[in-house]
Amino acid sequence: MPELCNMTLGGLLKLNAEKYPARNAIEYCGKSWTWGDCDRITDSIAKGLLARGVKRGSHIGIISSDNPSFLMFMLAVHKIGGVCVLLNPAYGKTELEALVEFTDIELLAFGERYRDTNLRELVESLPDFPLLKGTIFIGESAESEELDALVKDGASVGEDAYAGAQSAVMPEDTANILFTSGTTGSPKAVMISHFSQVNTSITQAGDLGASLDDKFCVGIPMFHCFCLSATVFSAFAVGGCVCFPESLRTVNIMKTLSESRCTVFNSVPSLFYALLARPDFASYDISSLRIGLIGGAGYTPEQFKSIEEGFGFTLLASLGMTEATGGITVTYPNDSFKVRSTTVGHFMKHVTGFICDINSGKELPEGKTGEICISGFMVTKGYYKQPELTKLAIDEKGRLHSGDLGYLDKNGNLHVTGRIKELINRGGEKISPNQIETCLTDNDRRIKTAKAIGIPDVHYGEEICVCVILEEGAEMSEDEVRAIVRRHLARYKIPKYVLFFEAFPYNFKGKVTNKILQEKAIERLKEQGLY
After folding, report:
1. In terms of domains, do 356 and 428 share one?
2. Does 161 map to a domain?
3. Among 27, 21, 22, 13, which Cα is nearest to 216's?
4. pLDDT tens digits, one per residue of 101-118
5. Which domain range does residue 57 map to?
6. On the CB side of 11, how many CA atoms lie within 13 Å of its CA?
7. I want to staple 233 with a disulfide (CB 3.0 to 4.6 A). Which of 201, 281, 308, 333 is the partner?
8. How far is residue 319's CA from residue 78's CA, in Å, rounded to a whole number?
9. Neighbour count for residue 247 (Cβ, 10 Å)
10. Strands 314-321 and 264-265
11. From its phi and psi, is residue 350 left (phi > 0), alpha (psi between -120 and 50) or beta?
12. Are residues 266 and 222 part of one domain?
């Protein structure tokens, strides 16, 4: 097992610039930047930030679509010890306002547009905050009048002062603040250190078998830990190249995969499906692809197979969480198809994994289902300004509680069976939604996907509602759905309610948003006079 690397993100960039100065580090819309270019540009921006009063520990917000400006501005902040607060550009004004204030942002950097949102207008609509000293437009290609002005300010910063600011940054310092997806509540601000970010990315690059010659396509947002660790900084870990599409529209992703001859593509299931569904998918030459990670949401073995065969590469299952900097498990490329498509693999190097009883916290043996917990360098420093929530997530033994349920098989591969918060409590019986969902999709091919949720009930506390999406052209009755469950599972797991949907609500990670689905289900049941 390789030793952990005691390095900052700025140090990693500097190392690549020294080793591979003329090799491409970034490609975007026909333009490219070498490692030497990236080091020089980020130095100029970092000096400008110092001149503007940014220092070690300053919180700098970034709200932008994914492009070279976002990445290089973030790296410049890292070089002088600032903390990047990565904000979802899909946030509405109220959400953005709350998070800018809560995370004590001192300078807010913004890009051009995100989908239909003019980010300048969004940022300028924000009220004044006591700590927010200014905003800066960063553009898309590390070029903007405001960045030019920032660089000019940096000319006043001497080399000794700049070197001193860089040397003061420690690997254990917080590099980024990322937000949890908030499927069951408000997003929490997760603090990620330079040390954990660097070493998680080195580990994931190793699991991908990545090398200097690999080109990583950015297909999911950089404010998400999956992209940041497994794509962007995994490329940095080996001196590979980060390839940005013009936007995250499927047509632009396909163009980038093809024209940049990308070799690594990591994504969530919903994006893989959307790309495969394009009528012109087969017209793109993506034969350069060799490997990719899939995570963030569930899928069936059939769906896994369609993705792997459609893209013509080796697909690796992975489990990750923001509080663990990114991935915590992964399958091996030489694992059987069954292992790669039905498990999330083994715990990664330097990750110590446990399956714990959800009531006592006692560690459970193989084959027993409990909460998936981990310890190791990758565990978050905590939730910003939320010590009580941090104590709930990280126990006195230093174990991070994932909130996911699962078990280890005899080969050490992890099987995820659901979420603790998603357990349906019907009259005191704790029911796993995943068990019902798997029962349905495994036993009737007319069912494309199913989601079991709890519906509040006066008598039982919660009743089971199964939401079903059928394969195109298929027909099925509510009683047929109940009959499948009746044949295979205990009687108390038979759903009281069955609803058919054409689509489920998803968040940016490709996960079904339970709260919204529950609201839609209750609304439908009321319309039918059943609730």
Report:
1. no
2. yes
3. 27
4. 999 999 999 999 998 889
5. 9-405
6. 18
7. 201
8. 27
9. 15
10. unpaired
11. left
12. yes
DSSP 8-state assignment for residue 344: -
Write down how long the chain is.
Answer: 531
Sign of the alpha-carbon dihedral angle for 109, 114, 119, 125? negative
What contacts 416, CB < 8 A, 6 or more positions away? 298, 319, 344, 372, 404, 405, 406, 434
The two counts, helices (H) then strands (E), for the chain are: 18, 27
User: What is the maximum alpha-carbon separation in the chain?
Assistant: 76
**187/291 same-domain check:** yes
The pLDDT tens digits of the residues spanning 12-70 come to 999 999 999 999 999 999 999 999 999 999 999 999 999 999 999 999 999 999 999 99
The structural domain count of the chain equals 2
Take residue 499 and report the two structure tokens written for it: 């609803």
Find, among 397, 362, 394, the residue nearest to 380 by Cα.
394
Q: Hey, what's the torsion of the CAs at 219, 223, 224, 229, to 10 degrees?
A: 80
Same domain, 233 and 305: yes
- Report how far residue 174's alpha carbon sits from residue 127's, in angstroms, rounded to the nearest whole number: 27
Sign of CA dihedral 375, 380, 386, 389: negative
Q: Using CA atoms, how far apart are residues 269 and 299, in angstroms rounded to an integer?
A: 7
| Distance, CA of 325 to CA of 382 (rounded, Å) | 11
What's the gap between Cα 274 and its chain centre?
A: 18
> Per the domain annotation, does 294 fall within a domain?
yes
What is the distance between the alpha carbons of residues 25 and 509, in angstroms, rounded to a whole number?
26
Alpha-carbon distance of 328 to 374, in angstroms, equals 8
